[in-house]
Prior knowledge:
single chain; alpha/beta; Alpha-Beta Plaits; 3 domains; eight-stranded mixed sheet; six-stranded parallel sheet; 19 helices; 42% helix
Amino acid sequence: MNLFRKLLRFPPVPICFISGLCFLVIMGLRSSGFLEDLELKAYDWLIRSRPESKEVPPRILIIQISEEDILAIGSWPLTDATLSQALKILLKHHPCAIGLDIFRDIPIPPGSEELSSVLSTNPNIICVMKFGHGGVPPPPIIEGTDQVGFNDMLVDPGGIIRRGLLFLDNGQQVYTSFNLLLALRFLQKNDVIAQPDDRNPENLKLGRTTINPLKRNDGGYVNADDRGYQYLIDFKDPSDFYQSYSLTRLLSGDINPVDIQDKIIFIGVAAQSVKDHFYTPFSRGFQAEQQMPGVVLHAHLASQLIRFGLHESLPIKTVKEKQEYLLILIWSLIGCLTGFFIRSPWRFSMMTAAGLFLLWLFSYAAFLNGWWIPMVPLALAGLLSTGITTAYVSNREKRQRAFLMQLFSKHVSQEIADSVWKQRDQFLYKGRPRPQKMTVTILFSDIKGFTSICETLDPQLLIQWLNTYMEAMTETIMKNGGVVDDYAGDGIKANFGVPFPRTTKAEITKDAENAVNCALAMGKEVERLNAVWQNEGLPQAGTRIGIFTGTIIAGALGSSDRMKYTTVGDVVNIAARLESYDKDLARENPWRILIGEATLKFLNGQFNTRMIAEAGLKGRNEKINIYRVLSKKEDYINPIRQEECV
């Protein structure tokens, strides 16, 4: 467990762990089909938002049988005679092919023999059948010929048509789709043929375009029924792209022969009373007006196949599963990096929004170039990894803040505490404050005559009296930029210049000045407290303060359960010895401040000082010059001869 915690402190480890976890979660959702509906809706949006293209010349004419046509003719289904008449009118103007999207498995007299004659003598007329068990056979006269194609549609969950079919088989015979047969008639006149692909003979190639069959997990699909030879419908033709006539207008001869010549003619039903309508990606709702007549849908499919054969457009491609997995992993990693390194809420929101926008832009640009790249798994991977990483970082920062505040907040000013938190990455190393060598000014203080005071007060009153003193001194230290390091009975240790190293002489000078100013302020605070205690009949106090400046080691000491940020080194010992040096000095004054020459040289003559002695301190062989701080120069009122001041 400790090893795991240590590893989590190394940023690449949690980033890799969280991104891997999010990848597995999204892949689990993806493979179980939970994201399929969202991804298919995203695909529909891509279809609708793509710019319409009108560069390809119209090649298709649709004869739609509307409700008005049925009322005008007076019967439904149409008789064979009516169909024969319509076909003869069209054949007279030399169409490329005619697709009859009306079932004629049984005769509907009158005119049945005439219809059979028209069908059998015109191989460019293609009729429909319905595939499989319970299907509908074609007109008997052309059964078994290449004039018959199935018109079955693949309906996705939710009732939307997104896929087309080229071939179906029942294990004994392969059947060709209605649309492909019509498209091949048109392509053959343009010297384009259907043939096996050079690399994979099982795949169909129209001209120079290979149509790779759609697999069960391609694009946003999950375990889709991939029987037959499927492809994605691109719906590139605009809604008003196909010229259309009503059946009544055709039968009346009110039609321009130019609109028929060399075109593919579709004849089908558009009347709502005849259930041959489908929902497509363009359907915004499930009302009747949101549906597309089957004959128009077949026109889209045939037109798309013709464009493939003439190399005017390419089939929609999908990334392979391994490539999609890699994209999800990359996007999870991007989300982790965003949550890990961007901590500003404003920047975080902007980066998240920018990431989603870039993903949308990437997917949209890819779709315009013929690639369907699933957006939903990528977006969810990014959001999930960002959210989890943000929660992890927030929890880690909460623990770090609690740890740092436990070390500092009670003993430093709010400014220093905030600075420690903002620069925590530089300050912390492997979960502990980073050990650092730095130049610091150390202050030690102690209460004069504390032993005798203890003898005169009962324990409860003594503790109250001592806490009043400690609170006043601590507040003074914090106001002057110091960090309280330790309390030892009646003593206080404070550091000026931690926790961040000072890199310039000006910064070191400022710390030394702050320490001396703090000591003077502590003296004045003692005078104030003495006045209060005198009125309350309590003992009065004096304080001794020692200050020294030099190089120390700062870091955290102790166990993980009990840790303290402190300073160690010879400088600390000297400051402590200065505090206890010659306790009989200035008994008449309630406070006394001694500093070493190492501190004096940073004070720039701002304070009135007096040299006390050149002495060796306890535990040290080397002597140092000891000075007493009397006051700041502008506040100097002590009647000590000026020649004693340096």
